[in-house]
Design the sequence.
């Protein structure tokens, strides 16, 4: 399964194109925004980027695999408070708000707590 998530640059910030009630729900980590800006300026020079989530069966050491901190995921399922979920792609560490995590789960039915996804940016 492959899922496409569009990201749009508005001013100096990147936002996922997801239905939401509050812009804070879709705010990205500054480290992730900087990475997106670097990739975009180097490769594309546009104000939008497509991120593809490609489902993989197991972690065999591939690059660009999205992983989440297990205790944060357990907390996500046991509380309704908003907090930062630690995420990792290769050597990059960033966070995703629990609101954004919920919106992605709801919109794309990714089951991020069960499945692994390799990311490709276009």
Sequence:
């Amino acid at each position: 399964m492959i899922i496409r998530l569009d990201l749009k640059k508005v001013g100096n910030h990147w936002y996922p194109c997801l239905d939401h009630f509050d812009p804070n729900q879709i705010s990205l980590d500054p480290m992730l925004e900087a990475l997106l800006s670097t990739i975009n300026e180097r490769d594309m020079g546009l104000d939008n980027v497509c991120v593809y989530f490609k489902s993989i069966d197991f972690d065999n050491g591939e690059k660009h695999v999205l992983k989440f901190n297990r205790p944060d995921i357990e907390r996500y399922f046991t509380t309704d408070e908003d907090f930062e979920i630690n995420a990792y792609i290769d050597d990059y560490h960033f966070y995703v708000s629990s609101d954004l995590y919920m919106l992605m789960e709801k919109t794309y039915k990714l089951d991020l707590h069960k499945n692994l996804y390799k990311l490709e940016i276009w």
The mean pLDDT is 89.
